[in-house]
Amino acid sequence: MTMTADTPPDRLATNPDSPHYDEAVLARGVGVRFKGIDKNNVDEYCVSEGWVRLAVGKTLDRKGNPVTVKLQGEVEPYFRDADADA
Fold first, then answer.
1. Is 2 a residue whose pLDDT tops 80?
2. Beta-strand pair 11-13/42-46
3. What 3 state SS string does the chain have?
4. pTM for this entry
5. Most exposed residue of 38, 39, 48, 71, measured as fewest CB within 10 angstroms of its CB?
6. pLDDT band at 84 (very low <50, low <70, confident <90, very high)
């Protein structure tokens, strides 16, 4: 799937160790609506597979990464700067 200037990637992660991490896209500001509700604690998402990973509070695992939970549902990523123009 090709990414246009106004469409976020199909899959994106905030963890720099992930192969789906993209600093340029994250710097632009990506918002995620999950099941129609804006979420601010999304660690990773995949539109084609229909899931998000959400951080669970401030809890960290033994490697210092946030503890996450994977939820299935409709995922709608958007660029925050494009949302401000509308």
1. no
2. antiparallel
3. CCCCCCCCCCEEECCCCCCCECHHHHHHCEEEEECCEEECCEEEEECCCCEEEEEEEEEECCCCCEEEEEEECCEEEEEHHHHHHC
4. 0.84
5. 48
6. low
